Amino acid sequence: MDFSTLLRTQAKVVKLLNNSLLKNRLVGIYLFEGAKGTQKIEAAYYFASLLMCERPNKPCGECLSCKRIKEGKHPRIFFVEPGGKGSILKSQIDDLEHEFSRVSLEEGIRVFIIKDIDKATLEASNRLLKFLEETSSTTYGILTTENLQNIINTIKSRSQIISFSKVPRDVVIEEYTKRGIKEEHSRILSILTNDINEGLVYSKDEKITAMIELVKAIGEAIWFKEKEPILVLNEMGKTLLSEKDKMYHNMFIDLMATMINDHIYYKLNQKNEITFTSVDFDIDCEVKELFTIVEKVLVYKQKIKYNVNVELMYMQMLIEVAR
Ligand SMILES: [Zn+2]
To answer: Which of 52, 124, 234, 256 is a Cys-bridge partner for 120, taking CB atoms 3.0 to 4.6 Å apart?
Structure first.
């Protein structure tokens, strides 16, 4: 577990947690809420480091506790997340309680982290509430969620809620470029996800890399008409056309719309907003016409939801956007 991204992107939360410890204002249960990619799990482990660090300069990053947390194997931190069926079950909370009721070989603070607490079944939530009543003063619980509104009030009222703000796009882009990803690719990843960890996985996905090249080539074909866009799709888009996972088709439509929006930014002289920085937009074209094209592309976002023949669908889309 590395906290450098957390420290940069959630400075307010980090300060709040640090101050809670310094000013002795700790509570037993925290509820970390915020959109996907806002570093809530990292913050949970950071908080655990603050609580468990053995040195005055917390978290020092060097003591045994800090080292164990970094390596993800602290024996007194328990992590629970939704299982195979996407829910947190009562049996998982039973297991958690069982772990806590054992006489620990090591005395000291214990922390449990429950990811996506909104996915807990009603039975599991009730079990958790009962467990919370029984925990000792050396136990801290951190619950996380992307959907605060789905959490039952009895859990909310027992917790201190800490809100995580969305990470600004330029910070996300910087996080990618810092890791050696090229500027344009970083900008494109920031369109595909707000979650830096997910973006790093995408950066290694060859299907996505090929898709980015495809979108650029289609763009050039639309603007410069040296080739039919449909021909480009058939030549470069074989993997995409045979792809079953809708995630990739959603991405393709998003990137197509982004590329056309880039053209609008170019015309409006807002060049720092451009994502596809290597595409040449220097051609005669009305902004109004571009807005119409973006709208046409975005209609396909709805169409992908149904089981349609994607090849036919994309051909139709490219005919509609051709100028
Ligand atoms: Zn330490």
So the answer is: 124
CATH fold of 4-167: Rossmann fold (3.40.50)
pLDDT of residue 323: 65
Cα-to-centroid distance, 206 and ligand 1 (Å): 39
Higher model confidence: residue 193 or residue 103? Answer: 193
Residues at Cβ < 5 Å from ligand 1 ion = 53, 55, 60, 63, 66
Residue 92: pLDDT above 70? yes
Distance from Cα 109 to the centre of ligand 1, integer Å: 14
Of 127, 153, 158, the C-alpha closest to 141 is 158
Distance 161 CA to ligand 1 centre (A): 26
Q: What would the two tokens of residue 270 be? A: 């807002």
205-321 placed in CATH 1.20.272: yes
| Side chain identity at residue 283, one-letter code | I
Domain boundaries defined on the chain: 4-167, 205-321
According to DSSP, the β-strands at 77-80 and 160-164 are unpaired
